[in-house]
Design goal:
434 Repressor (Amino-terminal Domain), alpha+beta, 6 helices, 7 strands, 7-stranded antiparallel β-sheet, Jelly Rolls
Length: 197
């Protein structure tokens, strides 16, 4: 009796889902991807090297696919295995324009698009619109910076060197060194800051 209870608990231990629920979810994802590609049950079964009935039983959750069959199925569906077995809902964070915090002083025009911790504790993504004549004084940050100009012209100084950049250029530099920017023609850019570990 105790062994049967233990077995039942183990069957239901896949992150709170029963084995049947997990198999049905995997099967439904396989069926959805097969239909998306316009493959018949018979066509996919033939590619995988299993019978149409076996594939039907996998898609309905009546049987558990072997790792070899699951690998073949995912290959022919052009999907990683992980996408077929993943649990839960996808993480989505929507940050509305009016929620994007400004950093530095509000007049600088620099917005945080992806705050620290959203992607990683080390990554912050920003965007900015800087008017002609704006100068950001030399400063240092503990990490590395990358920027891509979508519009305008500027001079970026890193250490003792100056770099003239314009729309379409990108620049990556070690922000541990003093760096500054002088806008020659109104600039729009996207930037990534990678903090030290």
């Amino acid at each position: 009796m105790a062994n049967r209870l233990k077995e039942k608990r183990e069957v239901r231990s896949f992150q709170g889902s029963s084995q049947e629920e997990v198999l049905k979810r995997i099967g439904a994802r396989i069926r959805a991807e097969r239909n998306r590609l316009g493959l018949s049950l018979e066509a996919l079964a033939r590619k995988v090297g299993i019978s149409k009935m076996t594939l039907h039983r996998i898609e309905t959750g009546a049987t558990s696919p072997s790792i070899i069959n699951l690998t073949e199925i995912s290959f022919h569906l052009k999907k990683p295995i992980e996408s077929l077995i993943r649990q839960g809902e996808p993480k989505v964070v929507l940050i509305r324009e009016d929620q994007q915090n400004t950093i530095m002083d509000p007049e600088s025009g620099i917005k945080v698009l992806a705050p620290r911790g959203l992607i990683s504790d080390r990554i912050t993504i920003t965007s900015a619109e800087l008017d002609t004549g704006v100068e950001i004084d030399p400063h240092v940050n503990k990490g590395f910076e990358w920027a891509y100009l979508t519009e305008g012209k500027a001079v970026v100084r890193v250490g003792d060197r100056k770099y003239k950049i314009q729309a379409g250029d990108s620049i990556f530099y070690d922000a541990h060194f003093p760096h500054s920017i002088k806008v020659e023609e109104k600039v729009k850019y996207i930037g990534i800051f990678l903090r030290d570990e």
